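Figure S4 source data
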Amino acid sequence: MSTKINVRSPFYLHLVEPSPPLPDFDCTVAGLAGFAVDNQGIITLPSPAVGVIDSISSDDGDFSNNKFPTESTDTSRTIKIKLLIPTGYANTSDIFFECPVTATQQGTSSSVVLPTVCSGGPSANGSISSKSLSVGGSSIDVALAGFFTNETTYDFSNLNPNLVTVALSGSTLTLSPNVIAGSTTVYAIARDNNFPATCEKTQSIAVSVSDSTTAFSCTEPTNPALQGGSITQQGAITKPSSLGSVGTIRTTSGDPSTNITSYPANTGTAERNVDLFFDITVPSGYSNATAIVECEARLVQKGTSAPEFTCKLAGLTGQSIARNGSIFTGTAFRGTVKTPASSTPFPTVDTDTSRTVNFPVTIPSGYQNAGSDISGGCDVPLIQPATVSICGSNNFYLSTPKTSLLGHCSDVYSANKLVTSTESSLVGLAQSQICEGGVAFDGKGLYYGVFTSSAAAAIGAIGRSYYIIQIDSSGIVIDTAIANCDALGGGSNVLV
């Protein structure tokens, strides 16, 4: 994505790549949008503005196999989205962050979500048997046409793409194993041509992926088996994620007497490393399925001191220097940018000149020394543009204006109104700037005869060609032509 910003002289903008909206990755930064649950309970995952979805869960008691059951009336649904935290955030080392999203599932009998509820549509024909895949093995095709009636189109829902890849070609659904073992449920969806006025029909497909040659360990099939996790300054522990179920936590390997659910608060000012041991129940599909494997993870526990505020976090933007040397303060993403201590305008320059301006920035709350200014301020490299008048210095002379291009043909006119332009010739006047007295000339969109020197009887029915320009209200020449009127003023032609 790119952004175009039009900036008229007389100054240059200082533009920088925006910093992340917040120092920590959180649900506001993630910006999840588009979560929906249809009347069959099929989930449409939201799209994050920042981050990547890893997995989902729900505390709703009727949530099962990544799907909600149908409901006769509108029902509020909430799922928790676990996202991979991108680089560049203060909590990137946590790897994951969880955000809840809520939507209303439309009822099958009555609803305010849509004006009308669906009716009719395809029906199921039997059921689709479970499918077994092997890591490194072949794909399996499912011919959906044999499992529905009265359908015309197909779709699917796969909320575990890390485990299995699903593709649809016509009525053929293809299931392909990835590199990890486990189980999930894929949903085949059938619709007719009147959907959504008619209802869709779903069929569940239980999919298992096995890797019987691999024993799950702290390094297989992923290294490490534990990813993410965090511990607050107060000692609250968020367990790391794993392919298996993460259970008991202890401070000493193999010693049940050190089992914990939280950790002592860090009363020191600096952060510290905390090494903990977690029991993982091996998931299905591995040679040691259901076994308990203990793995170590290092979590970082913050201290009591607030984080340091830096110029990078401030994210200064919009600073500039005008042609006359004046300094524009701009804004900051965080904190408050202030007028430089030395705000005296720079002297004007004949060529574009590099400058470095130091801007004081007041530290916002939540950081060390909040309310004071960043020590040493923030240096911003800027360019002061050369002093070149937009009006130029080349003289031209205008006639009385007319409302049409050939309006001067009824008489003879002098060209005696002095104006200046950035262009040096009549031929080059198109799109140039016209000024009078050092300011833009308000041409009001009218047509003017133009001459390179003050001249009497130079425009109109003079028996020879002459230049005509149309000037807008900001002094810009928006049209040019060469006009020629006969000596009696009875006819004319224009040479464009």
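Figure S5 source data
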Amino acid sequence: MAFLLGIDVGTTNTKLRVYDQDGEIEGEGNFPTPLFPDEEGELYDPQEILRKILQAISRFPEEVRQEIVALSVSSYAEVLVKVDNNGKPLGGSIPWYDNRTEKYFKEVELDREEVYRVSGLYPYHIYSFYKLLWHRERERETFKKTKFWTSMSGFILFYFSGVPSFDYSLASRTMLFRQRERCWWEEMLERVGLSAKNMAPLYPSGRVLGPVREEVARECGLSPDTLVVTGGHDHLCAALSVGVYKKGRALISTGTTESLTMALESLPSLSIEGEEKPFSWGHHVAYPYYYAMNGIYSGGYSVDWVLKLLKEDYSFLENCSFSLSSHIPIFFPYLLGGDYEGARGALLNLTGNTGREELILGLLLGLCFEYRNIWEKMEEKLGFRVKEAVNVGGGTQNRIWMRLKSTTLGKNIFVPQDREGSCRGAALLAGLGAGVYKDFEEAFQKTFRVKETFEPQEENQRSLEKWFRTYVEVEKDLRIINKKLGVLYGRE
């Protein structure tokens, strides 16, 4: 039996799953993704992440470890790991959501249209370009000592294989990658004091880097024949796992963030001029397909935030009854920022009669409205409609949220049996690289299973339509309010 190991290094948790070739889980492990504090917030700890991954693999039964024919890694985007001459990480990695780079975003002048046209990204402080500026200024000595920069996925794969790599999908999130030419953007690298030779070599996802190093095989009990395969962006790995690699289907990934991914068969020719919610585009892990992506930075994060404030857990959500009333507030989900500088969250229409249940419903509705707003703008710009979506991630456990989402979007939403799509997608890439599957379609058909389908509730659609249109109008006013508050709080 051929087993496949998928590893997903996520914002909050790191997960490992061993699958057989039919997609059945044969082993699993998880742990909180290690962070450590620094003077400006917190940093990911690549060495500790790696140590815990090796420890988790070692805990799988020996008979499982020996049958693993290939492994791959998905990870969050926008995060860089600096590697020294000895193959060790030089300090921590700035989380994708960190705001310490905002000052560089404000200070560095760029031709935003050109950046979007070349890199597929609308300039924003979370991207790797700005993180490199911070490293250059604040960590001058380690910056000089860095042999190469890679992604978190690339670093883990480097340890297993000994081969440096940076896959196209994660490179697509750096603002340093020329999408059409599939090469590093030298002019942008020069602006941060680097060149292409300072970056790990580029590869498509699903390419074999080589067998696992003998030392690593002995360390965690893997077969020395286990192949190491390039992985990719966590949301795009999830998209692969549910068949979102051809035009017509969309992925909703609900974790700390909530992303929307639509597959493209060719690179779009787009402009950001007049665009309120610009989406990113680039290389899919399902090479040679492409993606268009947008989302809510604080999707699941918002739900966790309000439950923590209310001292409730997720079981509370299942007991909520959906009923629109004048006491329900409207939530604007920008707790971790939004698509414009200075975006901050808001709760509007609070009254003395707003209770715990109304507060929860208002928050969930706000997330659904924002999602539809993003969805419609993407469809308009791309010029096609998507009729259905697959939703993965921990948020799929919240059935009231799923029902509201389906009704607000007016689309069927399928939830797969395995909600950890990023792990499964990484395992499928491993299988494709090892020849377990002949192509994406075979991998999808053999492993995808639907657990539950959510359909729009017609009785609530008309009421929600009115609320949504009001949300869109008020959101425009909120931009003005946030700009004024930015002056007050020193963000402008």
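The chain has 18 helices and 24 strands. The first helix runs from residue 46 to 58.
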